[in-house]
Write a structure and sequence with these properties.
Layout lengths: L14 H8 L7 E2 L12 H14 L1 H5 L8 H11 L11 E4 L2 H12 L5 E5 L4 H7 L5 E5 L8 H5 L4 E4 L13 H14 L2 E5 L15 H4 L12 E6 L11 E4 L2 H12 L7 H12 L2 H27 L4 E3 L7 E6 L6 H10 L2 E2 L1 E2 L12 E5 L5 H22 L1
Parallel strand pairs: 1-11, 3-4, 3-5, 5-6, 6-7
Antiparallel strand pairs: 2-8, 7-8, 9-10, 10-13, 12-13
Length: 399
């Protein structure tokens, strides 16, 4: 007897993603395709001490079911940290989630029915596209670099706009202040929500940080925030990804809807992780470890870009990012299909992420995303050397 078929959306994923994920099993592979922090940045001793404290001093918080919204003390800490001039946040503006990916999943559950429009910064974060794939939205790619980009036209009629303004995954792009303000204004004018996904905002290597769109959208300091921005943050890049602690900041009515969706997802984020996160933030641990993270990643960014200058200068165009975790490189030769380059690269012992998986409409096959945070300088250089060989082999086949 045959079983019922699986849901249709499962057949809509691409084999590029499966190939990329399986690449980690190849011996000797240099993985330049991921988006992972380096384990040596994790403050293991401090987290161990905080875990012991949570178990001995906050046993109920750590081991009982916490509130769906999150531990009140952690929500208060997030509200305090992100409140600013003109921006009044309370715990009712904050939902604790099981990593940034859960926040994206909840946004899809709350807002999207099949066929609904999503305006997405393009190229877009693969995880967001995967999170919303079962909802079958229709994407409006927003290419901020285009001179004729019109944010009001893009957002009008969309359920929400999705952006990663600080060192975007995958491009590493920093959205300028004027464009941030224009997006906020367009959200207010159109009625669409504006999702500001900010996992990389603290990874700022050059220049000064720009105001968050959350800050730019604040209008009334005398009452809790009720604007159009849905801000997403996480401890995965600044403390440790295994804690699986992130947060959503939004208008109370949005948070209430997300709480209902979370109840049917995991019911609550792990109490032990929340308690560790709460105490880590309260003691300033993220600020303590940040200078070391920035120093390490800045040097690796510079090392990667130097190796690219040596081995890939004729094959790709790219910009040195001022922060984040990625370099986005666009092929000069139109014959270079980067889906093919992914597979050829694996044969040469290197993995990169092809642009097709970041394209909401799955057409772009001319660019690659390269990560510089995980590998040591010598591995970055060797990985780029192997990539140059893979480029030559791919173009030879295409000739």
């Amino acid at each position: 007897m045959s079983h019922p078929a699986f849901a249709n959306w499962l057949s809509e994923t691409n084999d590029v993603t499966r190939t990329f994920l399986a690449a980690g099993q190849i011996p000797g592979l240099i993985n330049l395709g991921g988006g992972l922090p380096d384990p040596e940045t994790w403050p293991v001793k401090d987290i161990t001490a905080l875990a012991n404290r949570a178990m001995t001093e906050h046993t109920t918080d750590a081991l009982a079911y916490p509130p769906i919204e999150g531990l009140p003390a952690l929500r208060d800490e997030i509200a305090r940290r992100f409140s600013a001039t003109g921006l009044n946040l309370t715990r009712d503006n904050v939902l604790i989630v099981s990593g940034g990916m859960q926040a994206l999943d909840l946004i899809g559950k709350v807002f999207l029915d099949p066929g609904d429009a999503v305006a997405a910064q393009s190229p877009a974060y693969l995880g967001a596209l995967d999170a919303w794939r079962p909802r079958s939205p229709v994407y409006r790619p927003m290419v901020f670099e285009q001179d004729d980009f019109d944010p009001i036209n893009a957002l009008t009629g969309a359920k929400f706009a999705y952006t990663v303004p600080n060192f975007s995954n995958p491009t590493g792009r920093l959205v300028p202040l004027a464009q941030r303000q224009a997006l906020v204004d367009a959200a207010r004018a159109s009625g669409a929500f504006l999702v500001e996904d900010d996992p990389y905002g603290t990874l700022h290597y050059d220049g000064e940080p720009l105001p968050r769109m959350l800050d730019l959208s604040a209008q009334d300091a005398d009452r809790p925030y009720d604007g159009p921005v849905i801000y997403l943050g996480t401890l995965s890049k600044g403390l440790a990804p295994g804690l699986r602690v992130g947060w959503m900041i939004a208008a109370p009515e949005v948070i209430a809807a997300m709480v209902t969706a979370k109840q049917g997802s995991d019911m609550c984020t792990a109490g032990l992780s929340q308690r560790i996160a709460c105490d880590a933030l309260a003691m300033g641990l993220t600020e303590t470890v940040l200078p070391g993270i920035l120093s390490l990643y800045r040097a690796r960014r510079d090392g990667l870009c130097a190796a690219m200058k040596t081995h890939l200068d004729g094959a790709f165009d790219w910009q040195v990012p001022t922060g984040g975790m990625f370099v986005w490189a666009t092929a000069r030769d139109p014959r270079l299909d980067t889906d093919t380059l992914l597979r050829t690269g694996l044969d040469h012992g290197v993995c990169v992420s092809p642009s097709s998986v970041f394209d909401p409409v799955n057409r772009n096959r001319s660019a690659i995303r390269i990560n510089f945070t995980l590998n040591h300088a010598e591995d970055l250089a060797e990985g780029v050397r192997r990539l140059a060989q893979a480029v030559e082999a791919t173009l030879a086949k295409a000739a």
